[in-house]
Design brief:
mainly alpha; 8 helices
Length: about 190
């Protein structure tokens, strides 16, 4: 694992552009998020992924709104859930985006473009996405760190590993709980619109 003293601007910029471009081009970021945890640790990994995924989500939203509008509309027209998105966003943009971002059952990269079709403001999208993506980001970075520790572990670290894995289980439990609550809330809103 890289130590904080080894983390440089060039490391961050390489990671930032790789992650941002992967988001724009529909490449799932889960592997990069796990890698960030293994390489940079929990704090720096979460920070790097949060900034990068938010940049990718925001860039995709802007691209969907201004450059690929017709293509995105065509994709959205095939999905009842994505059609209802605009109406949900018009009722409460911040909470709709926050709840959808908390639930991993929605296609993250497609949603970035779909939000560009709604009337949501850039800043509302940015802040709701930042908060909604944070628990999942933290979980994947934590898991990446755990995988990194497991690969590099020795017998002397058994106690600290136990605490780390217990923390991972608690984090996963909280993330799953939040995801299920968010998914149910979104389903409830979609059902109300039917």
């Amino acid at each position: 694992m890289l130590q904080a003293s080894k983390i440089s601007l060039s490391n961050f910029l390489f990671f930032f552009f790789t992650y941002t471009l992967s988001t724009i081009f529909f490449i799932p970021g889960s592997i990069l998020t796990l890698l960030a945890g293994a390489l940079y640790g929990i704090f720096w990994g979460t920070l790097f992924v949060s900034i990068s995924s938010l940049a990718g989500a925001s860039a995709s939203m802007v691209l969907g709104r201004y450059f690929f509008r017709n293509r995105v509309k065509k994709l959205i027209s095939k999905s009842k859930s994505l059609k209802a998105l605009d109406e949900l966003v018009s009722q409460n943009a911040f909470w709709t985006v926050l709840l959808i971002r908390l639930s991993p059952s929605y296609p993250f990269n497609l949603l970035n473009y779909a939000f560009g079709m709604t009337k949501i403001s850039f800043w509302t999208h940015l802040w709701a996405s930042a908060l909604g993506m944070l628990p999942g980001t933290f979980l994947y970075v934590y898991l990446g760190k755990a995988i990194g520790i497991k690969l590099l572990s020795t017998q002397n670290q058994h106690r600290s590993q136990s605490l780390f894995w217990m923390g991972l289980c608690i984090t996963m439990g909280i993330s799953i709980f939040l995801s299920l609550k968010a998914k149910n809330k979104v389903k409830e809103k979609l059902h109300d619109k039917s």
